[in-house]
Amino acid sequence: MNEPILSVAGVSKTFVLHLREGARLPVVSGAGFQLLAGECVALGGPSGAGKSSVLKMVYGNYRVDAGHIRVREGGEVVDVATADPRRLIRLRARTMGYVSQFLRVIPRIGALDVVAEPLVGDGVAREEATARAGDLLARLNLPERLWPLPPATFSGGEQQRVNIARGLIAHRPLLLMDEPTASLDAANRQVVVDLIGEKKRAGVAILGIFHDAEVRDAVCDRVIDVTEFAKAA
Ligand SMILES: Nc1ncnc2c1ncn2[C@@H]1O[C@H](COP(=O)(O)OP(=O)(O)OP(=O)(O)O)[C@@H](O)[C@H]1O
Ligand SMILES: [Mg+2]
Q: Might you report a single GO cellular component term (predicted)?
């Protein structure tokens, strides 16, 4: 059980700006770290250090130039750095969740269904999925009158709570979170802290960016300073 869920080794990435005569912008070089089940690890470092870029590389949204990003899926290990797109999609569906900074609004779909969707995708009956989505939105203090409405017109904090609920509702052994509490008030930040604690106790490994020091101290077991990975870059 002590096999890491995520193992990053020797990862390097340089952005090449084709519209700027191929200017090269190195972000990380030789980045390496591991996450065990039940651990929450923060990516730290100043603005522009490469925190979001590392998260996007792990999720497979940014290609890496070198190195391995190995994710354990049951008895199998998938290297995000080399996996073909279909394997990556399957990995995301079963194993690797992502709570983005902003909700990607799906037109005409109400908040309750937006949150329930990952469970329905997992094969949970719609009625149960909807009930669980309601429980989660209630915990996050999203007023019930908003549940049937598409989140497009919601406030920033309301959208963020829908986004968190959608990201946390289904079990995924590895969760990536980019600033999950940036737009939340203190009461709702505490709800998110509690929800993350429950995930950890369920054995989920979490890699996140938490600018809020209170939240970070409450949920994270350690901080990885991304500037360490830039030194050689
Ligand atoms: N798609 C891209 N193309 C070119 N450069 C990029 C791209 N994404 C990020 N960068 C550059 O890489 C560097 C790291 O950006 P990144 O967004 O990872 O920083 P960050 O640590 O998340 O910062 P913040 O705390 O402000 O969110 C920045 O200099 C940024 O301009
Ligand atoms: Mg960022």
A: plasma membrane
With 60 as the cut, is the pLDDT of residue 94 above it? yes
Structure tokens at 143: 């007023």
Question: β-pairing, 66-73 with 6-17?
Answer: antiparallel
> What is the residue extent of each domain of the chain?
1-95+172-233, 104-171
Which one-letter DSSP state was computed for residue 226? T
pLDDT the model gives residue 232: 56
Q: Which ligand is nearest to the CA of 48?
A: 1
User: What CA–CA distance (Å, rounded) separates 106 from 34?
Assistant: 34
Length of the chain, in residues: 233
Q: How much distance in Å is there from the Cα of 48 to the middle of ligand 1?
A: 5
> Nearest C-alpha to atom 1 of ligand 1 is from which residue?
15
pLDDT digits (tens, 9 = 90+) for 40-87: 999 999 999 999 999 999 999 999 999 999 999 989 999 999 999 999
CATH architecture of 1-95+172-233: 3-Layer(aba) Sandwich (3.40)
Q: What is the rounded end-to-end Cα distance, in angstroms, of the chain?
A: 34
Between CA 69 and CA 64 the distance in angstroms is: 9
Provide the angle, in degrees to the nearest 10, between the axes of the packed helices 156-168 and 186-201. Answer: 10
| Gap from CA of 124 to ligand 2 centroid (Å) | 34
Q: pLDDT at residue 231 above 80?
A: no
Report pLDDT for 21: 85
Q: DSSP assignment, residue 126? A: H
Q: Mean pLDDT for the chain?
A: 94
